[in-house]
Design brief:
Layout (H helix, E strand, L loop, with lengths): L1 E5 L3 H14 L8 E5 L2 H10 L3 E6 L10 H10 L5 E5 L4 H9 L4 E4 L4 H12 L18 H5 L7 H4 L4 H11 L4 H8 L3 H15 L4 H11 L6
Parallel strand pairs: 1-2, 1-3, 3-4, 4-5
Helix pairs in contact: 8-10, 9-10
Length: about 220
């Protein structure tokens, strides 16, 4: 898989690229790391490598990209590529805002190499990584009711999700809007909304963001 690392600090990019390439053991083999210092460079990389499968994005890309607006601009450029935010700003509000804007995960820049390995492994496997959040954030009451029932052999089946609902949840985690889910799965918008309502009910959540947080907390893999 090709991974695009977008960060304005060359030394940080080089160090993280070496870590990913030489020290991290990930499912499916090694990642090929491509680099960009800003969104313009990232667009050129995508032109040369249209098969990029995952992006790591810093939220601060001077001179004109700061905060969640950076993520929104990236999503406009490459809506089909899952993106994980890599940021020094790990305030809970920033993390939740990034998930709201379509990020498939959030990795603070301060984490140890072992945590980076866990985070990337989970995302590559189709899951979500988020740092611990205070109890006032996330999915709220009811999470433990289904979390305790999850098993390593079949956690999604244990939640009672159908194969089609798992497909919908996977695309939701990738930040896809309802219309894009409809297009990719050849479903009507009303059918997608019905699946989403069932997913929210089974996860005991009330929104797309809470569903992503629930997937992260449970460590679920949604890879097909």
């Amino acid at each position: 898989m090709k991974l695009l690392l977008i960060d304005d600090h060359p030394l940080f990019r080089d160090g993280l690229s070496m870590l990913i390439t030489h020290r991290l053991s990930l499912p499916g083999g090694a990642l090929q790391v491509l680099q960009a210092g800003d969104l313009q460079q990232a667009a050129r990389v995508l032109d040369e490598h249209p098969d990029v499968g995952l992006a790591l994005l810093d939220l601060s890309l001077p001179p004109d990209c700061h905060g969640v607006r950076t993520l929104e601009r990236w999503r406009g450029m490459a809506p089909g590529i899952p993106v994980v935010v890599l940021s020094a700003d790990d305030r809970p509000d920033t993390i939740i805002s990034a998930i709201d804007a379509g990020a498939s995960g959030f990795i603070p820049k301060t984490v140890q190499a072992s945590v980076m390995q866990e985070a990337l492994s989970r995302v590559v496997a189709g899951g979500v990584y988020l740092p611990p959040l205070p109890g006032s954030y996330g999915i709220g009451v009811g999470h433990n009711d289904w979390d305790d029932d999850l098993s390593e052999d079949g956690p999604l089946n244990a939640m009672g999700l159908s194969s089609r609902q798992i497909d919908v949840l996977r695309l939701l985690v990738e930040g896809k809007a309802n219309k894009e889910i409809c297009r990719q799965l050849s479903l009507s918008e009303s059918t997608v909304k019905t699946h989403l309502a069932a997913i929210f009910r089974k996860l005991k959540v009330n929104s797309r963001t809470q569903a992503v947080v629930a997937v992260a907390k449970a460590g679920l893999s949604l890879k097909t």
